Amino acid sequence: MSEHDPRDLVVIALSGVQRYITESRTTADLRAASQIVAHLAAEAVKHLDRQHQAEMVFPAPAEPDERNGKRRERGAEDGMPNRVVALLPKGTGATAARNTTEHLRNTWALWVKQVFGREMDQVPGWPMVQWVNVPAESGPYDQVWKQAQRALAERKNTRSFHQPGDAPGELCMLSPRWRAVDSSDLPPKPPEHMKRERLGVANWVKRLWHRTSTGSRESFSSTNAIASLPYRHAVLTCWENTDGIGELVARLRRAAKDLGNDPIEETRTPGLPPEPQNLAADWLRERGSRWVYPEAWHVDALAREFTETTEEADRRREDPTFVTVVRSGHQAAQALVDLMVDQGVPAPSPHVAVLVQDLDSMGKYLSGDASGQDGQPLDLSRGHAVHTDVSARLARTAARQRKAVQKVGGVVVYAGGDDLLALVPAASALEATRACRKAGDPYLPHASNGLMFFHHGASLRQALAGAQELLEKAKELANKNGLGVGFVRSSGSHASCVLPWREEAGEGTPEVADSPVEALELFVTSKNHPRARLSPRLLSDLLAERFHLDGGGQDALGGFDVLPYRVAHAEMRRLVLRHTSLVPAPPGSDHREREDAVLSPDDGTEHETAPAKRDREEREAFATKATRSLERMSSQGRRVDEDAIRVALFLRQEIH
């Protein structure tokens, strides 16, 4: 765009995207919703390019192929933004935007028809396509861009009140703002386990996305597959060198098969070792993810899950054969856990984590009103090439983030460079978060993150909403660039805290070497002092003394004598040490082969042996580090932060 080649600037935005994606019950729903949005954006790019000779700004054209140097057409798999920006020949912008919007609505209608086999009523408010056009004569690119952003913000505040006809009926169980499709109008031949679900048209397309000509038929890992991946990886790794593993997995497979047709479809989880090659090992890689949990083998739950009616479930509960099969599966799963614990492998974690990331102040950065990590704002006077370069940087960032998540056994739902949504095993969640930040571009703004740990059988939708809420809280920090981390147990208990990735040193004070996030990472068992455990009673003891340790904050009702720093720190360390214990050392360690203490044959006094001394020193070392970490994680001016302590205890107790 220049004085010699004036062009219209068009911005086409897909609104309501986050809501549609998070209204998901399964990981398959989540992935399909993300793909639907990405394909709609890709269709907009394709239509503008092919039908209106547009020059794309966001997203930038794909990188040239390393083999032949040719640029391929950018597709949904590249991580499409939900906002498309293009330059059109002078005077054609409005027509191009209007035609592209109609094309997207027709594309959606085609997908609906392919799922239902017929045309259906329009879905109110989906897809919601909004566009603005700034004519070429409006000025140089920097002025045109800011005018487009103001116009789009105003456009989003304007609602279209066109509503298709509505009739009384049940509401969609995923999106209650829409009516559910009547049982007589369901898509042809829906899977048996879906017939009882009450879904609106848009969510039936999400659920049966693979039936469209565009939808992917590739399956997506479930939450229990992601949660159990580290454990299954260890089982497969130890298979050949540990007697009994193969037999126990084979027993699990037989028990699962004897239950009947599993209503939960699973896919082969990526990231597992290809060896050994046999039926039992292949089953463990693909369908065995939930059966490795002893608690999954519950008579009442399985009786209901493997039947269609309550009456059938009641009969199944009383069936001796069925009860025997469930007990056999439970015994095999527990025996496998015990065997792996003997090899130094902890029991399978029931938790998985939702990771979200978003660049801070991206709108201001694109308008030249905020700086990147290098401290330099964009110079829009150089024209649209500046934004094209940013778009290319985002695409490269997204590619690196996908690799980073996959490396730790996670799966990416969406990666666009400026934002990210992924599901990762609990043990590697903080590692994945740091790796995704490291994969960022130093010329782009810092990113904030939300990380929510939840039970693999709990509500995915609530976990997604929780992660997004944590991200928003992280962005409320003075300098943003924060991490909101929390958990929800299967019992419903929960806690969260927000920590800065980097703390700004006060005037005249030296910069602290480690950040509060690094302090939190101490409590990830697999990374630091793997044998150390903290008793949950530590929390009650610290809360009982918080008025003396730091004054009690806003909860203080009267005057309390706050201990001097050194005395308070020593007292806090004493409590942490008191509640620190060590689990048995792995096989082969002299901790397991020698007694902790022996009696002297001469004087009958107890003398500390080398293993006992090492255990004591390890407890003390961990207690010292844990005390300092809890202080670093606390709010400014505090030493006892209840929510931060709850998060730390959860990580040390549950994330192995």
Task: Offer a quick outline of the entry.
By secondary structure, the protein is of the alpha+beta class.
General description of the model:
This protein is α+β, with helices and mostly antiparallel strands. It contains 22 helices and 14 strands. The strands form four sheets. A six-stranded mixed beta sheet has the order 6-7-5-8-9-10, with helices on both faces. The chain is globular, with a radius of gyration of 28 Å. Residues 590-600 have low confidence and may be disordered.
Lateral strand order in the biggest sheet? 6-7-5-8-9-10
Please estimate the helix content.
40-55%
- Low-pLDDT runs of 5+ residues are 590-600
**Coarse structural class:** alpha+beta
- The fraction of residues in strands falls at 5-15%
User: Could you tell me how far the N terminus lies from the C terminus, measured between alpha carbons in angstroms?
Assistant: 55 Å
Q: What is the β-strand count? A: 14
Number of helices: 22
Radius of gyration: 28 Å
Overall mean pLDDT stands at: 88
Biggest β-sheet strands, sense, barrel: 6 strands, mixed
Q: Overall 3D geometry? A: globular
